[in-house]
Amino acid sequence: MRDFIEPAVIARLQGLALDARGPMIGSVSGRHRSPTRGSSLEFSEYRKYVPGDDTRRLDWRAWGRSDRYYIKEFEADTNLRLCLVVDVSGSMNYSPDGKSQPGTSRLDYARRLAGTLAWLASGQGDAVGLYCAGKAFQREIRPKRGASHLRFVLDELGNMRAGGETGLPEILHEAAERIAQRALVVVISDLLMDPEPLKSSFQHLRFRKHDVVVFQLLEQNELAFEFDRPIRFVDLEGAAPMLVDPTLIAKQYREAVTTWQDSLRTMFRDNGVDYHQVSLQEHYAEVLVRFLLARKRGV
Question: What is the pTM of this model?
C-alpha cells in the first residue's frame, strides 16, 4: 500500500463503479458497452439474416410469425482502458498558501487522484496506463490489466517529480495518436496556460473517440487573489520572479481569471469533455465521489 493510497478512501469508493460515457473497445469481456455486437444478456435489435451469419442466432419464433429469417443482436460488453495523463511541469510543485510540507503540493493531490482511480479501475478488471507529461513525455506506461501491472503504475506515480515548462498541448496530441483504441483518458493538470493551444488537442482526443475527463487542480488564492500586502511571486516554470502590490492589480487579475475560466468551460463543453474544477482545499475523496456518482447517472 502506497502512502498516497488511503484504505479508508478505497473502502468508501468500493461500491461505486468507474463507468465510461460511451462504448469502449477492450480486449476481454467486462462491464462496459462495446461498439461491436456480441453475446450478452442485453438484447439490442433484430436484423435480417444474410448468408454467412451464425445460424445459432436465428430467432425461430420470428420466422414462425413472419416466414422470414431474423438474427438477434445483443450488446457486447468489454473492459475499458483507463489512460491517466498527469501534468508534471514545474507549476505542479505549488502548495496551498505557499506551504512546503511533504504531501501538500498540487502534484501530491494529482498523485492521490490518479492512484485511487487506477486502483478502482484495476479492481473491476480494466486496463490502466500512465503518461507523465512535462515538456515532453517523461514516462509512458501502456494500458494493461492485472495486479502486477497496477503495482508498476503505482510505483511510477510515487516516483513522479515535477519541474520545467509545460508541453501539455503537444503531449495530448501525441497521446491521442499513441492510445490506439478508444479509451477513458483522464487529464490531471492545473491548465495554467492559454486555452487556445489546448483546444485542438482536446478536439484531437475526441476525434479519436476517447472519453475525455479533465481534473483542473487550483488553489483558492489563485482564483480569489486575496493578498493584502506586497508579495514576491515566483514562477515555478522558470520565468523571473515579480514583486507585486496586490491592491494595484487585484481587480484586473480577477477579471482575467474569470475570462480564462469561461474560455476553458466553453471549450470543454463544446468538445464534449467531462470537466471538473477541483480546489486543493477539498479532500480528494469528495471529488471522486461526485465524479463517480455523476458517471453512474450518465451526466
Answer: 0.81
